[in-house]
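Form 7-S
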Amino acid sequence: MARTRPAVSRGFPRALPFVASIAIAVACRPQPAPTPRGAEPDVRIGVLVGAAEVAVRGGGALAGSERERAVLRLGAGETVTLRADGYGIATRAPSGEDRFERLTFVSLEPGRFVYVDGRAYRGVVEVLSAGDGLTVVNVLPLDAYVGGVVNAEMGRRARDESAALEAQAIVARTYAVRNQGKFASAGFDLRAGVADQAYLGVEAETAQGLEAVRTTAGQVLVHQDEVITPFYHSTCGGTTAAPEESFRTVRSTRYLRPVSDGHGGGFYCDRSPRFRWTVEWDGPTLLRILRQTVPATLGVDGDMIDALHDVRIHRTGPSERVVEVRLQVGAGDIPVFGPDVRHVFQTPEGRILGSTAVELRVAHRDGMVSRLLAEGRGWGHGVGMCQWGAVGRAKAGQDARTILETYFPGARLARWY
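Output:
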């Protein structure tokens, strides 16, 4: 993952001010949903949830407060270790030990960051006691958050692929706006991981990624003046998916529907290392995996998987992704629907299947499945923006607006703040 330049914070027009006092609790409260042309909101990102112990330090002098009262001050390089002990947050600092319910950390030096377990974050870091674990929340301006998402999601890109980073910045910002408050009961808006968006703080930033954030500042995707739900994935494999092919509760809309990634004799995402792939199981290995994954995913009694006589695709969807597979066992057929296929057919190495855009080739011996070969296309759920397709389109000269209006037909760009 890319490392940032030390003084990259000056790239943002609204950096956190020098804090002589650490009475900053107001800035850390959950913010109301932003309105068009309003001020840039702060977002609360859950970077760790359920941690038994975390180490916090500053790039320079660091202050910690509880309920607007200064309780800790660390010099550059000094570390405070926080642990959950069932009664709150127990600290182990150079100045001694104590216990708190909630701690807020802020750097006292401009351009310096707060480090959690060695990872640098802009803005403010809160540590909350939650049950038997610790929740660590990074509170920062929305575009500063997007700066830590763009390259975490897209990796380093060539100069002629900058439009793909701009598209990713807009989609990441749109996702954050749409989902603000998603985990409000847990004390944050979004998780820092694949359940929401990859976010690695300062270490994921690059000059090119930050430029993409600045170029698109405040822009989101809207449909009928409402911020859209902007799904995205690694590689579509030729055609993006209809939502109902991949999710139980999301249905096709004007802006979420299958879109071809083809051009001429190829596809924009065919440069992806996961454009085409295969997975193979022998009969005993597949039977062992299904005995574990079918009960865990479908709630079906594992004893029903007494023998595997056949595996067949029963239905496909609008993008030709699998929406139902039938497992023929001794007691009859077990249906596996699209959202569950990737989890049920785990690879022999224990990973979920790359996508549901697959063809299955089955070999039998003595009435049993002796071999199953999955020949797949693309990677991920397939809905919305294809990230590798965006890279290919950028290299072909398309700008961010064209890329996004292709993958989200009917949506348009709007300046939200």
